[in-house]
Amino acid sequence: MTTCLFKRSEVITHFLVFILFFIGSISVIAQEDDYLESINASYDDALHTWELYTNQQEGTLEMTWINKHDLSEWNYELGEYSGIIRTVWPGKFDKWELRSFEGNNIQFSIKWRGDKTEWLITDGDTQLTYRTIRGADLNAWEIVKNKQVGEYRMYTEFDDDPRDWIVEDYLVEDLPIEFTLVCSFIPVYVIMTL
What we know:
This protein is α+β, with helices and mostly antiparallel strands. Helices cover 21% and strands 51% of the residues. It is built from 2 helices and 12 strands. The protein has helices at 8-32, 177-192; strands at residues 36-43, 46-54, 58-65, 70-78, 81-87, 95-100, 105-112, 115-122, 127-134, 137-143, 150-158, 161-171. A 12-stranded antiparallel β-barrel has the order 1-2-3-4-5-6-7-8-9-10-11-12. The protein is globular and about 75 Å long. It starts with 7 loop residues before the first helix and ends with a helix.
């Protein structure tokens, strides 16, 4: 005759704890895998307000002073993340900063004077180069290959129609989401200055 080491109630309790732990683990993994999928103009005839879509949430990118058509300051919201994107110096559009309300600060600037097709992006620790894939063609952008941070590409759904962009966001999870927001903003800003 064999003896049972656990009482039936203990087995059920251990099983339930295991199930709850397993479900909690899946939910944490799902939350970490948030990535940008697309960015779309809110209106067909204006590029001052944009909708951001990740696989889990929606957000907005909007010119702060729409009535003045002032490109120098923008607001963004994406889930629990929000902040301001603005020029560092008034009247100069070659150096920008993103300041999140969560305390992150990203600086980005054109790499070559007068050339808006290549940008440097940094938070002080990580530096990325973001550029058009085919020179002066503004329909497709990418982060220059960098194994430490992953990959990011953004391209128009239809050539020469800047209202809808597809995003391939494969940046590493520990890189702040603000890098993704800057990479989304740059093509939108460049298109608006044509």
